Amino acid sequence: MIRDIPHNNHWDLILHLPCVCLLRETRKGVFNPSLPQMFQQRISIKPTDFISWLFSVLPPDCPPLGLESLNVDDSQIQASSYQRSGLGPHRGRLNIQSGIEDGDLYDGAWCAEFKDKHQWLEVDAIHLTLFTGVILQGRNSIWSWDWVETYKVQLSNDSVSWKTCMNGTQEAIFEGNQNPETPVLGLLPVPTVARFIRINPQTWYFNGTVCLRAEILGCRVPDPDDIYSSAPEPGSKDALDFRHHNYKEMRKLMKSVTEECPDITRVYTIGKSYTGLKLYVMEISDNPGKHELGEPEFRYVAGMHGNEALGRELVLNLMQYMCKEYKKGNQRIVRLVTETRIHLLPSMNPDGYEVAYEKGSELAGWAEGRYSFEGIDLNHNFPDLNNIMWDAQETAADPSKVSNHYIPIPEYYTKEDAMVAPETRAVISWMQDIPFVLSANLHGGELVVTYPFDCTRDWAPQENTPTADDAFFRWLATVYASTNLVMVDPDRRICHYEDFQGHNNIINGGAWHTVPGSMNDFSYLHTNCFEVTVELSCDKFPHVSELPIEWENNKESLLVYMEQVHRGIKGVVKDKITKQGIADAVIKVEDHDHDIRSAADGDYWRLLNPGEYKVVVWAEGYFPSMRRCHVGMEPNPTICDFTLTKTPIQRLKEIRAKGGKVPQDLQLRLRALRLRKLRASTKAINRRRESQQLQRRRARSSGGWRI
C-alpha cells in the first residue's frame, strides 16, 4: 500500500491518455513489437473501449513488481555498467542491505562504473505492464554516501527502441534522494504500457557516485496472446482479510473474530504503549479466560519492531483461520483448541507500526517505525540475565550450585527512572502471570529462524552460544524452517548478504549477531518458556498483494510449531497427604543444566526430545522424588506425575503455626530424626578422633614430632 500516492488520480491520468497518440507510437515502433493484436484492434476501432476495458480489469493501485520481495529475478535486471560484482544490477533492489565490509559480493546498491548521464538500470517485467511509478533509494553502506538526486524514466517493448517519459512537451525529470535511506516515490505523469523500464540518473550526490536501489510500480496487462496469461495467480484459497490493518482496523478485526467464535475466543489487554494504545491479545481455547490443569500455554508475539508488519498480519490471519476451521470441524484445529491455551499478541509496538503504516509498505524504508515512540529497540530492552548468570558461575566456588532458571530481575531495572519501555514492562508482567511453555517472536527482513542464546558470553559480535537445551531449540527452529515454503526452496535467492541455507535456515542467535537483553533469552532464563525468533520474509513490510502468498508460505509452519508445545513430559506435582498441587516445585532433568518450576496448580511441562530421562522433583519443605520418564517420537507428552512427602520439620512448623497439638506419629518421627542426627554426629566425632590418634602414632614411629 503506497499511502502517499494520490490513488483517486491514477485512472484520471490514464483516462486523459491520448489514445490516438498511443496508436501513433505503435506505428513508430516503440510499443509495437509485442503489443497484442487485440490491443491494436481495440485502439484503432474505438480507443475509449480499450481504456474502459483496461480500467475494468486492472486494480486502482498498481503493486510493486517485486524487486524488494525477490519476485523479480536477478536475470530480469540489467545495467549499462557496474563497478564490480558486489555492486551489480542485481543489488539495485529497494531496502537491500550490505555486509559490514564494502568490496565484497554483497554491497548495498547498484553502482555504475562511470559517472555520466548515460548510465541506466533496466528491469524486464516479462509481460506487458502498465507502469505507474518508481521508488528510489540510495546506497546502503557504513562507509560510503551515494545516491541519485534526479533521473529520467525510459520505456520500451523490445529493449531496443526506447521512449523517454514526457511531462507535457518536455522530458520528465524525477526528483530522487537527498540521503541514502529514505525512499522517494516518483509517479509517472501518465501511466504507460510497456514491457521494459529504465531508470536513467541525471544528477547525484556531489561527493558520491551513481548508485541506487529501486522498486517499480506496475500492473500486469491481461494479454490473450501470452501463453502464460492463463496460469493461475499465486494466492490463498482461505477467505481471510488480507490487508494491512492499522490500530483501529486491527481492534475491529479482533472483535469480529470473537463475535464469530465467542465460545473459543477472548480479547484482553496486557498494558498500553507509550502513547496509550492498548496491547491487545487474542486468546483461543475451549475454556477462554481460565488456565486448565495440564493444558500448556502457548504464545505468538509479533510487531516488536513496528515496521516488520508481516508478523502482525500473519497473527491476524491465524486467529481468523482457527476460528473458521474450528467451526468447520477441522480436527487438527479442534485438537489444538481443546488441548492448548493459545495467546496471540499481534502488535507489541503499536506506536512504531502506526508510523510505518502512515508511510506505506514501500516508503517506510528499512527502519521507519522500528523503534518505540521513545526510540527504544524493544528486542534489546529486556533484563540481561545472561551475564548475571555467567558472572555468578565464574565467581562461584561451585558453578553447578548457581541458579540456572528463574533468575530474578535486577533491582536497577525495576526503578521508575530505568530506561524500560512500557511495552516491555507489560510483556514481562504477562510472562510472569501466565505459565507459558512455548513461544515464537515474529520478525521480518530475513529468512531464518534463530534460537537462544542471542547474547554472546564474551561480548563477541558473533559467537555460537548454546543453551543447556540446545538440541531441543534446534529442533524447534527446524520444525518452522523445514515447513516454510520459501525457506525450503533450494533455488531461492538470499535476502541480503548472508546465506542461511547452508545451516538449514536456522542459526544460534549469538552466532548470527549478539543481542543483549533479548526477549528470547529473558523468557528462557526468567520463566519456563522456550522461545525462538522467526525472520519471516526478506521484505519487512510486504505490499498488500503479497499477503495471501505469505500466508500460504507460513500457514503450515505456524500450525506445526504450535503443536510442539505437546512434546516432552508433563504432569502434576502433588502433596501426598492433601493431594493438592504444589506450586514452585523444581523439576530437574539429569544432564540438562536448566530447571523449570511447577505452576500455581502444581502442573508442569518440560519440553524434551525423544529419549529416556531421569527426573528429580523437589520443593521447599518436601523430600525430593525421582522417577524415569520416557519421551517418544510422537508429538504427545509423556505423563510423569510426582507425589511429594513433607519433611517432619515442615509438618511441625505448619502445626505450630496453626497452634495445634503435635500428633503421636509425628513426635515419634521427630524423635527418630533427632536420634539419626545424633548418631551421625557421634560417628563423625569418633572418626575425627581416630584419625587424630592415627596421625600421632605415625608421628612417633617416624622419630618424633616435627614442628
Can you tell me about this structure?
This protein has 707 residues and is an alpha+beta fold. It is 29% helix and 22% strand. The protein is built from 17 helices and 26 strands. Strand 20 and strand 21 form a beta hairpin. It starts with 9 loop residues before the first helix and ends in a 6-residue tail after the last helix. The relative contact order is 0.09.
Unreliable parts: 1-47
The biggest beta sheet, please? Answer: 8 strands, antiparallel
**Which CATH class of the largest domain is shown?**
Alpha Beta
Share in helix:
25-40%
Number of helical segments?
Answer: 17
Instruction: Supply the number of structural domains.
Output: 4
Fill in the CATH topology of the largest domain.
Aminopeptidase
The number of strands is 26
- Principal-axes geometry comes out as elongated
Indicate the CATH architecture of the largest domain. Answer: 3-Layer(aba) Sandwich
C-alpha end-to-end distance: 91 Å
Protein name: Carboxypeptidase X, M14 family member 1
InterPro entries: CarboxyPept-like_regulatory, CARBOXYPEPT_ZN_1, CARBOXYPEPT_ZN_2, FA58C, Galactose-bd-like_sf, Peptidase_M14, Peptidase_M14_domain
Family: Belongs to the peptidase M14 family.
GO cellular component, one term: extracellular space
Question: How would the blueprint of this fold be written?
Answer:
Elements: H1 10-15, H2 19-28, H3 37-45, H4 47-57, E1 77-79, E2 110-111, E3 121-137, E4 148-156, E5 163-164, E6 166-167, E7 170-171, E8 174-175, E9 184-204, E10 211-220, H5 247-260, E11 265-272, E12 278-284, E13 297-302, H6 310-328, H7 331-339, E14 341-345, H8 350-359, H9 385-395, H10 411-414, H11 422-433, E15 436-443, E16 448-451, H12 470-481, E17 506-508, H13 509-512, H14 519-526, E18 530-535, H15 547-563, E19 569-575, E20 586-589, E21 596-597, E22 603-606, E23 611-618, E24 625-631, E25 638-639, E26 642-644, H16 648-657, H17 664-701
Parallel strand pairs: 13-14, 13-15, 15-18, 16-17, 19-25, 19-26
Antiparallel strand pairs: 1-3, 2-10, 3-9, 3-10, 4-5, 4-8, 4-9, 6-7, 11-12, 12-14, 16-18, 19-22, 20-21, 20-23, 23-24
Helix pairs in contact: 3-4, 5-6, 6-15, 12-15, 16-17
Subcellular location: Secreted
GO molecular function: metallocarboxypeptidase activity; zinc ion binding
Domain F5/8 type C: 60-219
